[in-house]
Write a structure and sequence with these properties.
The protein is mostly beta strands and 144 residues long. The chain has one helix and nine strands, in the order ββββββαβββ. The chain is 6% helix and 47% strand.
């Protein structure tokens, strides 16, 4: 079984929204100083469909929902990518591209997401950090 290091993965944000006709590398801004992030995952709540003929509870899956994704950063007020994360809180959906560093299959994840929050943490003895939370809307397009 192959194993891969996460070091070297990148995340970019399309500064012109999610309109594919506008997307180009010129509109993609790399988010720098990223410490940790992941690929947004999906989940589904169960729906209880038990009735009087059942002697055991019966469930079906509900609608699929994308879980929130957290991006942990070393804060840099001069970083353009971090600035877009901060500025796009409450804005319309934006296109994000995550490029994994190791596997060749499913290497690039492209998806639209809402930027839900951006916060800055000021520890008394440590680096100034920031945390952004995004929520994927729609599908995750995978390309090798």
């Amino acid at each position: 079984m192959a194993k891969y290091a996460a070091n070297g993965a990148t995340i970019t944000i399309n500064t012109h929204g999610s309109d594919d006709s506008l997307y180009s590398n010129a509109n993609a801004e790399t988010i720098s100083n990223v410490v940790s992030f992941g690929v947004p995952s999906d989940s589904s709540d169960e729906i209880d469909v038990s009735d009087h003929s059942s002697n055991r509870r019966v469930y079906v899956n509900g609608l699929i929902d994308s879980d929130d994704m957290t991006i942990e950063l070393i804060y840099d007020p001069e970083d353009t990518g971090q600035g877009y994360l901060r500025d796009y809180v409450g804005s319309t959906e934006k296109e994000f591209v995550i490029t994994l560093s190791g596997p060749s299959a499913s290497n690039v994840h492209t998806f639209d997401a809402l930027v839900k929050s951006f916060s800055i943490d000021l520890p008394s003895d440590g680096a100034i950090t920031a945390t952004a939370t995004i929520k994927r809307v729609g599908d995750d397009a995978l390309t090798p």
